[in-house]
Write a structure and sequence with these properties.
about 425 residues, mainly beta, 8-stranded parallel sheet
Length: about 425
């Protein structure tokens, strides 16, 4: 990792104080990018149809009406062939990946979804396998497939110490624009009550790798405050490896609701969520959209983002956090929205570009309420991420309130 301290800091608190004063006090520290500035390859699928201290803002565009999942007709279970899936992650990223952030060995799976044919890989089979836990692989035939989920797959808290879902680079799980795809909540008694300290337990450890999550939509689902269009996690441990997230959605308004692709609340002993070699968006029309955090969102959670691509995601809420009078709130963190007290965000070897925030932090929004959190950016390219309401001076696309200034090395901010 390129910094002496743990690469675990997200953009939290600089910006709030900076915005109140109207000058944002961070100096710019930019260098030639070591990461590839490209935004990935267009998707092969056909798409179905703030800060508390922020004083600056822009006039919000009217939000589209929220979609209500219960009003949509139920989708029929189906598995459809898919075109070859573009590689995930930043091919120009060379950040060192620690063992904890690498893919899990699935050579000897606990269970396999499918018997070698596309028709055998169904939503029901995915739901049952995730509930049972263990190391899960797919056998759906030689070609890529899309499995349309007719129900959200939910991790059972007593299913075992770990749940690994490995698509082998051929499987897309689709929410069909109707539902969240994957869910784990150690404090949800409906999934089994395993401990009195549910928000700080070591298991289950959930890993998703070599998968694509498409068209997840949690709009109207306010479990744990909402958000997490493709994946919602609370407690245990969670990591993502070599995976793609396209066209995911969550509610369009709300001051602290977010994560069109992923929303995380609580991790065991404050350990970070690792996201390695993965793509969020990747091409125009493929990005995620939510009130805050067009890709990722969390409260009090640390992140390590390694060799990733986050492009064409958007935070579409209006009014920041807490919401200004007469507004519904939201609009921060075009790609990443983080909030809480002491936490860190580390970005290395990654491309974060062409994301958009109606309020603050077109690329990254980081607020550490007690000003103890930190943000590190190394060997990365953050370009073309407009913040239409507010940003931290000298750090384009970033709103930061935390300990000192963001640590930026070998990176381009523009």
């Amino acid at each position: 990792m390129p910094n002496s301290r743990p690469l675990l800091a997200v953009l939290a608190g600089l910006l709030a104080g900076a915005l109140v004063s109207g000058c944002g006090g961070a100096g710019k520290d930019t260098h030639d990018a070591a990461a590839s500035p490209t935004g990935g390859t267009p998707s092969a699928w056909t798409a179905p149809p703030a800060s508390r201290e922020a004083a600056a803002s822009t006039a919000p565009a009217s939000a589209r009406p929220s979609r209500t999942p219960s009003r949509r007709p139920a989708a029929k279970p189906r598995v459809t062939p898919a075109a070859p899936v573009p590689a995930a992650g930043n091919p120009g990223g060379h950040a060192q990946v620690p063992a904890a952030a690498r893919a899990v060995d699935t050579a000897h799976p606990t269970r396999t979804i499918g018997n070698g044919t596309p028709a055998s890989c169904t939503s029901a089979a995915v739901v049952a396998a995730v509930a049972a836990g263990g190391v899960i692989t797919f056998s759906c035939g030689p070609r890529p497939v899309v499995i349309t989920m007719t129900a959200t797959a939910k991790v059972r808290n007593a299913a075992g110490p770990r749940v690994v879902l490995d698509g082998g680079g051929k499987v897309t799980l689709s929410g069909a624009g109707r539902r969240r795809i994957l869910y784990m909540d150690t404090c949800d008694q409906a999934q089994g009550w395993t401990t009195s300290h549910c928000q700080n337990q070591s298991t289950p450890e959930l890993t998703v790798q070599n998968l694509t999550f498409a068209d997840g939509d949690s709009t109207g689902d306010r479990a744990e405050g909402g958000g997490g269009g493709a994946i919602l996690v609370r407690g245990g441990r969670f990591k993502v490896v070599n995976s793609r997230f396209v066209r995911n959605r969550c509610d369009r308004t709300g001051p602290d609701l977010g994560g069109a692709a992923i929303r995380v609340l609580d991790q065991y002993q404050g350990l970070p969520v690792y996201v390695t070699g993965s793509t969020f968006g990747g091409a125009p029309g493929q990005g995620g959209s939510c009130s805050n955090g067009g890709a990722l969102s969390s409260i009090g959670v640390s992140w390590v983002l390694l060799n990733d691509v986050m492009t064409y995601n958007s935070a579409v809420g209006s009014g920041a956090n807490p919401a200004r009078g007469g507004t519904p709130g939201g609009g921060s963190g075009g790609a990443v929205y983080t909030d809480g007290n002491k936490y860190t965000v580390s970005v290395a070897g990654s491309v974060i570009s062409h994301n958009d925030a109606k309020e603050g932090g077109g690329a990254l929004f980081f607020v550490s309420n007690d000003r103890t959190g930190s943000l590190d950016i190394a060997s990365s390219s953050l370009t073309g991420n407009p913040s239409h309401g507010f940003a931290t001076a000298g750090y384009p696309g970033i709103f930061f309130l935390g300990a000192g200034k963001p640590e930026v090395s070998g990176s381009t901010l523009d």
